[in-house]
Design goal:
heterodimer, A: 246 residues, mainly alpha, 10 helices, globular, B: 300 residues, alpha/beta, Rossmann fold, 2 domains, 6-stranded mixed β-sheet, 4-stranded antiparallel β-sheet, 13 strands, 29% helix, disordered C terminus
Amino acid sequence: MSALTLTHARFLLLETIRVPVALIGTLFFPAAAMLFFVVPFAGDDPTAATFATASMVTFAVMTSNLFGHGVGVASDRALPWDAYTRTLPAGPGPRFAGRIIVGLVMTAASLLPVVVIAVLLTEATTTPLGLVLGAGAALVAAIPFTLMGLAVGYGLPMKAALAVAQVLFFPLAFFGGLMSSPTNPPGIVQAVAPYLPTRGAVELMWAAVSDYSPDPLPLVMLGVWTVALAGLALLAYHRDESRRFR
Amino acid sequence: MILAQMRNVTRRYGDTVALDGVDLSIRAGEVVGVLGPNGAGKSTLLKLLVGLRRPTSGTVELFGGSPLDPANRRQIGVTPQETGLVPTLRVAECIDYVARHYPDPLPRDEVLARFGLENLARRQTGSLSGGQQRRLAVALAFVGRPRLVFLDEPTTGLDVEIRHVLWDAIRAFHAEGGTVLLTSHYLDEVEALAQRVVVIDNGRVLADDTVDAVRGLVGVHRVSMAAMPLPPLPGVVAMSESDGRVHLLTPDADELVRALVRSEAPFRDLAVRPTTLEEAFLHLTSRRPTADQPLTGANA
């Protein structure tokens, strides 16, 4: 990784953490969801608490990347500073790579309170290996949602990007089964979930931290979503490039 | 030595032609002022030279290569638009950020001192006044010890004092052998800083000469009065009518008024004033103004 990439990551991170609203969105909402929905309803049951924590981790991965990149990229594109950075002797690569790194850092930051709350206030439990696998699953889950965020951020102007991210995140979470139990979800969730990227992601997470064996269909669909979102993100990126820099 | 060059460059945005067959060379050690009204193509010219846009046809060279190649941008400095600073970054952080892109940047304290920003290093740019933001924006162009600096409207809208701080910094850079391309729609700014002026309008280079030569070219007065019809008068380079008044553009207003009086043609409400730059462009282009009656050359 080049020093310039780290420079861009560092300054993008500085920009991000100095905007309190962005921090609240990333750190507060997953933690609040843990406190209000998981701790009181599933906190005492080790199995339910573990599944619910894994679901909230998936939720945090989704929201931090969808909002972080969706809104972050869209608002950067509107600022002359973004164009100015392109006159510096670096290609677009370091800034883009820096952006991805910041996305991962912010994702990790949003996971931390969820895990801390799970440890302190619930009976959720896993093995050290489960924890490592869970981190790996979070990284894998971050890929499609990073791409989704980039597609939104490069494809839409700021206000539309925010609206679309807000419209997307709740149905993705609910219908993907992040808010219901793995074994006994409502009928509609059971019918739709396998086809949503959130389901594949959360199944990976459940499998990582417990002895849950995931369904193949949602995992295949997660792969399909990742490829499709990569195409969409690439399309949006190229369209933005040709509009602003050709 | 030529640092930057455009050869027969045309740039279109959809149906709009922003630049139309422009040839331009920037030689080492020059301060070149690009002068033109809003929408003339100044910004597009700059964007092509720094690699933010590509020409529709023709070639753009920076240090002998493409401006799209980051390596060729190592010796240039560019100013972000004043409103374009990241509001949450501190002044010192902005300078550090830019400095990290260059092999041998100016020390941060020197940048701060040159632009009178010493006491603002810890301030977030969003809390700076417009003049302070502009000083920082211009300062960023010099951070990488560039050989060629591009300044887009560096002092537009600034008060006189800040304007002179920036002018002094630009002059100092030039005195050390630096090369500057600056755009402006102020004639006096170009006169104060540049040795060479490139006048562009409608995407074309209308004049590319020394400041003195261009000043002579645009040293035109506007004589207007309520009168109709007028006899033939000497030295009229363009004539237009609006609201029952006749407007004459002439390089010698005194001689024109003398001739007018001698002709004994009836007139009233005579007014003589220096042309605005805009009118000078009209004179240079002989293009037809949109609001007024068609402008006609005196010999037509």
